[in-house]
Every structure is written in structure tokens, then in C-alpha cells.
Amino acid sequence: MTDTNTASDQESAVLTKRLANGVTEIVLNRPEKRNAFDDVIIQQLISAFTDAHNDNDTKVVILRSEGKHFSAGADLGWMRRMADNSRQENLDDSRQLARMMECLNELKKPVIGLVQGAAFGGAVGLAACCDIVIATEKTSFCLSEVKLGLIPAVISPYVVRAIGERQARRYFLSAEVFGARDAERFGLVHIVCDDVEAMNTRCDEMLKQLAQNGPEAMEAAKNLVFAVSHKPIDSVVIDDTAHRIADIRVGEEGQEGLSAFLNKRSANWIPESK
């Protein structure tokens, strides 16, 4: 992955890096604090996710962190401040955290999450909101909120969808640490690699895989998952899916993809081989 345009403010806790072939990296850059986030960083992440969502040149997003750990979740200093805040101030803060998760979950481009080291608390929510999660053998996860007398409320819709109600009932209550292989078995992680170097290599392979696919089709496919997930297979859903495939078949990208396939050529969105 070649960095072609790195954010100028290297001291920022969130960096946006535009790489080759329409890849945008959003990087948590607070390794000295184990990439913990507070209200300021949440706002930076909301802005970064929103910009990537709206950027026509971005085809794929990578969410990753600098340093040994993906993220320790909420910053201790921020939690201390929240403890002294009123209920309304806490509600406003929580709604911003919820907005951040929503922006990541609904980002219309494919999102690859690279998770190394520890992913605790809210960081598990970040992973659950990514479309494809790659971790290392030594990555560890923990829904640690109850240890502090709290609950993983804002991240719960995404985590429960990722790992299922049965595992959530255990790990929300126990605050046990679980490893990458268990996370893979639960559905939170898709690919487990030996180490960070292997994780980055696997990410490059995934980027090449995604580059073969129509950008509009991937966005529509992501929306399709949301549209049919947890819905009864009734006449409404069946009719909706029929409309979706009909619309995309007659669209410009669908026409190009079918033409390329029938004429045994590469579609126009596929990068030229160097």
C-alpha cells in the first residue's frame, strides 16, 4: 500500500491517508494512550468517516491504528470528566459516540478493519461496524464495561449482530478477555493472521479482491444486507429484492459489468495491471 497523500497534521489523533487506487486509510494515531478515544477524537472520527462516505474518489476504507494496540476504548480522563457531568451532558456525549458508530456502520464504501493488540470496550464496537475484520493471533478483545459498573450500551446493537445474543449474554456480563480465534468463531473477526506483517499482506490481497468489483455494486450489496437482515422472507422483502436487481441490471455499472463478462474483457473499474 503506497501512501500518496498523508494528512499534514501528524500530531492529530486521527489521520486520513489517501493511498493508490481509491483506498483511504483512517488511522487512530494515539499509541502512547493505546489509541483510547475521547469526545474530541470521536468528533474527528465522525468527520473522517463522513468525508470518506462522501468522497467519490474513495472506493475502499481501511480503519487501523498506530502502535501495539488497536484501541483501549474510552479514555480514562474522558470517563472521569463524564462522571462529574450532568445526566444531560452524559446523554449528549453518548449520542455523539452513537453517531460515530452509526457513521462507520453505514459508510457506503467497503470498510476493512485491521485489529492488532488489544481491542477493549468501544473498540469492539468499531470492529463490529467494519465489513471485513482482519486480526492477528495475539489480538485480544474485551467488553470490559461492567468492571467499571457500566454497560456497553451504545455499541451493543452492532456487537450483538456480530457475535450473536448467546455470546453477548456471556461476554457483556463476564467482561472476560477473548482471543482472535474465539472472535473469529463468534463472527466478529473474519481472518486471523500470524502477525502484523501478515495482517498487512492479507489486507493488500483483500484490496486486490475488492478492486475487481463494481464500486456501485458493492455499495448496493452492503445496503442489501441491511435491507434483508433479520426480516421475515415475506412478499415485501421478495418484491424489494426483485426491484433492487432490476434497477442495478439496467444501471450504467451493471451494463458495463455484463458487457465486460460477455465480451471476455476487464470492466472499466478494474485498475490496470502494472
What's this entry about, in short?
With 274 residues, the chain is an alpha/beta fold.
Which structural class do you get from the secondary structure elements? alpha/beta
How much helix, percentage-wise, in residues? 40-55%
SSE arrangement, N to C: EEEHEHHEEHEEHEHEHHHH
Give the CA-based shape: globular
- Whole-number radius of gyration? 20 Å
Tags for this model:
7-stranded mixed β-sheet; single chain; alpha/beta; disordered N terminus; 16% strand; 274 residues
Please give the structural blueprint.
Blueprint: E1 3-6, E2 14-19, E3 23-28, H1 39-54, E4 60-65, H2 76-84, H3 87-105, E5 111-115, E6 118-120, H4 122-129, E7 132-136, E8 140-142, H5 156-174, E9 177-179, H6 180-186, E10 191-193, H7 196-211, H8 215-228, H9 235-250, H10 252-262
Parallel strand pairs: 3-4, 4-5, 5-7, 6-8, 7-10
Antiparallel strand pairs: 1-2, 2-3, 8-9
Helix pairs in contact: 1-3, 3-4, 4-5, 8-9
General description of the model:
- The chain is an alpha/beta fold and 274 residues long.
- 49% of the residues lie in helices and 16% in strands.
- It contains ten helices and ten strands.
- The strands form two sheets. It has a seven-stranded mixed β-sheet, with helices on both faces. Strands 6-8-9 form a three-stranded mixed β-sheet.
- Strand 3 (23-28), helix 1 (39-54) and strand 4 (60-65) form a beta-alpha-beta unit.
- Helix 3 (87-105) runs parallel beside helix 4 (122-129) and helix 4 crosses helix 5 (156-174).
- The protein is globular.
- The two termini are 14 Å apart.
- Mean pLDDT is 93; it is low at 1-10.
